């Protein structure tokens, strides 16, 4: 086997392990990347119903997009299938606005081809209409707390928060068409496990066909008119704790899966502490197959990051990871949270270098670009033909390339570390004018 191919395989294995470390994955969700949003397929070992979970249609409703993101990395389906779109409207999620091109959930009856949301809407329509889809849920955060009778401006019949919204009571002659009954089953289950009594859920039937012309433009009504049972799950915007909203969303989805006969395993106990931990775990990003960053501890601003002038490729382990082009670089997001800013340093990347030999505490190994390498005492990058090494944060007069030099943690300035803890150091490899890749040298002591 060609050694370059072997190194690429090694890198893929390392990055896959990084993904697993980031999410403690118990299942492999098949990810279909098709800008602007992603589709994850979780297939069960046994045949059964297929549930389509759609999040992020409104960019300022984080309960509606962090819950499906957790589904993609932490659930294994045993019977049935899940199709998960965690980020239907990624531009609006990054901007943390309902819809930067106006409300996407009002474009499912008619949408102009020149509308910026056209590709999103038409593609999700095709997914909804797929014959294998048996049920559709659209995840939201809504204002207030729904009550059948008026109490005040927050608790009233016009509020959308804490509701399961259906467009009609039943969808006749379709499996799982008993929408009102299904929604009430979820209400009964969820209202037994609330963290506060006033968080009670209710069923809101908009009777869309006869009473709500605006709702006739919505995603769920489009599903209904195409004989797909559908409902919206709305947690309250007045609940400020994102983990709690995410808990209610996941609990609702799990209850619905039970009704549909979809069985699953989850790799964490469903409680507030664990959900808070997981939604604040940002995972990794791989850039151009030669740089990897741990987003959980990366410094908020990284200067002089070697990048291509155009067509940089960002591959996030987190389902809500996105890169946004900004002046002189890229802002990295997980959902609506900006986790890092990369200030670019433009380089060509036409390298022929096939391997990097690194000595860690006296033991030599071959390494792939983007790897995290641990050392206790010292490390050394072996000299190789036409290779130049730049250990960011180390400087010695007259030294052009830092290969062949044994370095300790104390030799490198913490100010130049990649992470906030100050123990991951950036080693850049060049071949002539070309940037080849970066290694992450992590001091464990």
How is the topology of this model organized?
Elements (H helix, E strand, L loop, with lengths): L2 H21 L6 E5 L2 E7 L2 E9 L8 H12 E11 L4 H6 L22 H12 L5 E8 L2 E2 L8 E2 L6 E4 L12 H12 L11 E4 L2 H4 L7 H7 L4 E7 L5 H19 L2 E4 L5 H8 L4 E4 L3 E4 L6 E7 L6 E3 L4 E6 L2 E6 L2 E10 L9 E5 L2 E5 L4 E4 L3 E3 L5 E5 L32 E8 L2 E10 L2
Parallel strand pairs: 3-4, 3-5, 5-10, 6-7, 8-9, 14-18, 21-25
Antiparallel strand pairs: 1-2, 2-4, 4-11, 8-10, 12-13, 12-15, 16-17, 17-18, 19-20, 19-22, 23-24, 24-25
**Oligomeric form:** single chain
Number of strands: 25
Q: What would the average pLDDT be, to the nearest integer?
A: 93
Summing up helix and strand content along with how strands pair, one would put the structural category as alpha/beta
Q: How far do the termini sit from each other?
A: 37 Å
Question: Uncertain spans, ≥5 residues at pLDDT below 50?
Answer: 1-27
Largest sheet: 9 strands, mixed
Strand content: 25-35%
User: Which value, in Å, is the CA radius of gyration?
Assistant: 25 Å
Helix content: 10-25%
Please characterize this protein's 3D structure.
Helices cover 23% and strands 32% of the residues. With 445 residues, it is α/β, with parallel strands linked by helices. The strands form 6 sheets. Strands 1, 2, 3, 4, 5, 8, 9, 10 and 11 form a 9-stranded mixed sheet that branches. The two termini are 37 Å apart. The relative contact order is 0.12. Mean pLDDT is 93; it is low at 1-27.
